[in-house]
Q: What sequence folds into this?
């Protein structure tokens, strides 16, 4: 029994290794099954998307996925529109992680959680906030913002 | 003000674990929607902001409303607001009874949908078709999808990117004007279009 188990573990480990080796681009591309949650609509100055530990320049037209992190440089700005029609726009030196997102385009219900780590963000909320009160949240280091209405802004900054 | 315009390098250092603060602001609604409102929860208190330019600040586990003047708010968020893309726009077009052909008025209104896409550096279009309650469910489901497809085909014929257009049909579900079954209602024979 113990030996069988050991073999099984070794096989699993080998399978994992082969899988990892067989998909060198795993870190670059999201799994095929994953659906885009937003599209980049506007970029000014330096802006990037951090995905699976890799940073790439943000380009207008690129799509975003759950867990992507949008970042801007000290002169940068980025505007994105989610599939529920929520609009995010970030000013310079910002970092925002798109942690959770679910949306059903049939009944417009869903949930969203963005992690605002740094910078400035202006938001016009969309279908999720309208159809599912309390389901859209923005986390900051000090508090969580729940969205009831449409237009607001958040700044996260450090103590001097 | 100075404390909020710390240089990027200092920001990076601060990201590594120094005390953080957040400022929350309700802005006047974009394009004249209803009243904006947010709730700020820090684990102890929930602060509701529901007036334009109402602000709250949170630090070290406590949140309190603040009186930030409008000029300061505009300065703090100027670049974030400047980065805002054109907001999504919604359109509704109507059809002739039992047909995927637009009414004469909607043929004219269609132009606004097309023109809207031209304002945007990149666009996505969603087209959802609907019917009234005349006819059976299966027929109406198919008709609603034909209506959405007809609009997509027209947009593609006019030069828009087919890949950027998604269609769906809801048949006689989600009536714009609630009616009994087997009721002709021009306002229900429609497509709802979102351009973003």
A:
């Amino acid at each position: 029994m113990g030996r069988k188990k050991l073999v099984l573990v070794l096989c699993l480990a080998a399978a994992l290794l082969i899988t990892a080796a067989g998909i060198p681009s795993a870190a670059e591309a999201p799994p095929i099954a994953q659906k885009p949650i937003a599209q980049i609509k506007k970029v000014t100055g330096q802006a990037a998307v951090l995905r699976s530990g890799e940073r790439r320049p943000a380009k207008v037209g690129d799509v975003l996925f759950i867990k992507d992190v949008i970042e801007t440089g000290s002169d940068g700005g980025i505007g994105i529109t989610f599939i529920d029609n929520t609009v995010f726009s970030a000013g310079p030196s910002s970092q925002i992680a798109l942690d959770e997102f679910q949306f059903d385009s049939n009944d417009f219900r869903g949930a969203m959680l963005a992690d605002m780590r740094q910078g400035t963000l202006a938001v016009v909320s969309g279908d999720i906030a309208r159809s599912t009160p309390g389901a859209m949240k923005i986390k900051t280091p000090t508090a969580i913002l729940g969205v009831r209405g449409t237009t607001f802004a958040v700044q996260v900054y450090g103590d001097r | 003000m100075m404390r909020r315009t710390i240089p990027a390098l200092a920001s990076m250092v601060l990201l590594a674990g120094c005390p953080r603060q957040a400022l929350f602001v309700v802005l006047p609604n974009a394009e004249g929607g209803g009243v904006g409102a947010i709730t700020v929860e820090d684990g102890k208190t929930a602060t509701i902001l529901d007036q334009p330019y109402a602000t709250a600040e949170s630090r070290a586990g406590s949140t309190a409303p603040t009186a930030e003047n409008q000029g300061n708010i505009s300065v703090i968020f100027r670049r974030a607001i400047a980065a805002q893309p054109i907001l999504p726009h919604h359109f509704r077009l109507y059809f002739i009874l039992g047909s995927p052909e637009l009414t004469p008025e909607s043929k004219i209104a269609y132009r606004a949908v097309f023109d809207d896409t031209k304002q945007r550096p990149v666009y996505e279009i969603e087209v959802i078709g609907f019917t009234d309650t005349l006819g059976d469910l299966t027929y109406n489901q198919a008709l609603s999808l034909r209506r959405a497809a007809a609009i997509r085909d027209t947009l593609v014929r006019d030069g828009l990117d087919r890949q950027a257009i998604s269609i769906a049909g809801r048949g006689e579900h989600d009536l714009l004007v609630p009616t009994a079954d087997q009721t002709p209602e021009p306002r229900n024979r429609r497509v709802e279009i979102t351009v973003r």
User: Anything to note?
Assistant: Chain A has two helices and twelve strands. Chain A touches chain B through 54 residues (CB under 8 Å). Residues 2-22 of chain A form the longest helix (21 residues).
